[in-house]
Each structure stands twice: as structure tokens, then as C-alpha cells.
């Protein structure tokens, strides 16, 4: 993958470090320590740069492997602190994220425009009772059914809790871009855990010599090997950990 060209460590190590950071409540120094235990000397500042650079690339590459999104969207916004100030985070359950300094019609419209550009149009949209949503939906999704009944949005609100649990050890975000990046990456690893992607590995350790000669479909251009399409999808996360353990 061209995005990894010029880096000292192989893609498997970089992706593993990024995945650890997005999935677990760890700091960059925690990741540095975990890699050091595996004889990989990486400064925590480098881990930060990996997360900021590669998370958007991995999110984009994974779109090719994602199951087709459902026809129902659950939309909500929550608050996160960026440089000591409360910032609004628009989220669609399991899919789209937009960080914004304002909670207004322009921000909501920008969120929907970006989300609609990435997938199918929903037939039903569930939101809270914020007054901006009816106007935006009438403009962009006039054919969709709008649901704003109480407790209908519990699904996305529960997911807010998981995201905030991940953000808590970070002691606050410094930039709006970081809020966008980490939130989108967190959604990616959660969706991988939920089985929303068809992910595979280059070869299986259980294959016989005869089976290993079978040809597999080529990966889409620009996609890292752990996101490649395979005849028999497997849990790529265990594969990544195994690859990182073998690096010396």
C-alpha cells in the first residue's frame, strides 16, 4: 500500500498500534510500552502521528469491504471537549461522524450531505427532537420517514457512552481534526467487532500445501492486506497481532 511507503515499520505493526489505540482505553505512552514489550522501539509521538495519518486511510479502505448499510439511520449528536471547549459531534449509528464547533442547521446539513455521498439513501431516519432536523430532511431526504419519538434513539445514545469511555483517558482533545479522526476510527473498530465488514487474511495457517496454492481474488488497489477480500473471511485482528509478534 503506497500510504505506508517510506515508514520504518511494516504496515502490520503500524496498523496494530492504531487499532490498539482506537479500540482500547490506552494512551500513546501505553502503546509505546506495549510495543516495547514486543521488542519494537517506537516513541509515543510516532504513535500519535500514525493514528492521525492512517486512521482516515483505513476507514476509507474499509468501505470497500463493508456490508451494505441498512435503510434505517439513527442520528444524534453528543458533546466532546476540544482544547477545553465543548464541541458537537454528529454521529450516525455505526457509520458517519462529523465534528463541528456549532450545533446549527449548517452543521447538520453538512453532516447529511457527507453521509449521503458515501452510501445508499435511507428510507427512515431517527433523530431527537432538535428543530433543525425536519428542515434538513425535507430538503435532502423528502421521501424518508422521520422518526423522533422518545427513546427511539437509545441505540446511538448507548454508542455515545462507548465512545466517551474511549476518549476519557485522553484528557481532552487538542484539535477538531483529532476528534473527527478518533471518533471515525472508533466507529470502524466497533463495526469490525460487530461483523459489519468482510475481512480476510492473505493465507491461513491451517491450509494444507495443496490448499495454499489456490488463487484468491485480488485486493482492490490501495487496500492493505488485512482488509483484502478473500474466499474465506477470517478475524483479521488476531492475524494482525500474530504478525506484529513475529516482527524483529
From TrEMBL:
Source taxon at top rank: Bacteria
Annotated keywords: DNA recombination, DNA-binding, Transposition
BP GO annotations: DNA recombination; transposition
Span of domain DDE: 72-196
Region (Disordered): 200-236
UniProt-recorded Gene Ontology molecular function terms: DNA binding
Cross-referenced Pfam families: DDE_Tnp_IS240
InterPro entries in alphabetical order: DDE_dom, IS_Transposase, RNaseH-like_sf, Transpos_IS6
NCBIfam families with a match to the protein in the record: transpos_IS6 (NF033587)
Name of protein: Transposase (Or an inactivated derivative)
Amino acid at each position: 500500500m503506497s500510504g505506508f511507503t517510506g515508514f520504518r515499520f511494516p504496515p502490520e505493526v503500524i496498523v496494530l498500534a492504531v487499532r490498539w489505540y482506537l479500540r482500547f482505553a490506552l494512551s500513546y505512552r501505553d502503546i509505546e510500552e506495549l510495543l516495547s514489550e514486543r521488542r519494537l522501539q517506537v516513541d509515543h509521538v510516532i504513535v500519535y502521528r500514525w493514528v492521525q495519518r492512517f486512521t482516515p486511510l483505513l476507514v476509507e479502505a474499509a468501505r470497500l469491504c463493508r456490508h451494505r448499510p441498512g435503510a434505517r439511520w439513527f442520528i444524534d449528536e453528543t458533546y466532546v471537549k476540544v482544547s477545553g471547549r465543548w464541541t458537537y459531534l454528529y454521529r450516525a449509528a455505526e457509520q458517519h461522524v462529523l465534528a463541528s464547533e456549532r450545533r446549527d442547521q449548517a452543521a447538520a446539513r453538512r453532516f447529511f450531505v457527507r453521509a449521503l455521498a458515501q452510501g445508499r439513501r435511507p428510507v427512515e431516519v431517527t433523530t431527537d427532537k432538535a428543530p433543525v432536523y425536519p428542515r434538513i430532511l425535507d430538503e435532502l431526504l423528502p421521501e424518508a420517514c422521520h422518526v423522533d419519538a422518545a427513546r427511539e434513539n437509545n441505540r446511538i445514545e448507548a454508542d455515545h457512552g462507548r465512545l466517551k469511555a474511549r476518549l476519557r483517558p485522553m484528557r481532552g482533545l487538542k484539535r477538531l481534526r483529532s476528534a473527527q479522526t478518533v471518533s471515525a476510527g472508533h466507529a470502524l473498530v466497533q463495526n469490525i467487532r460487530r461483523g459489519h465488514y468482510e475481512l480476510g487474511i492473505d493465507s491461513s495457517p491451517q491450509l494444507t500445501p495443496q490448499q495454499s496454492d489456490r488463487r484468491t481474488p485480488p485486493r482492490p488497489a490501495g487496500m492493505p492486506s488485512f482488509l483484502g477480500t478473500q474466499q474465506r473471511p477470517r478475524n483479521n485482528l488476531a492475524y494482525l497481532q500474530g504478525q506484529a509478534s513475529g516482527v524483529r
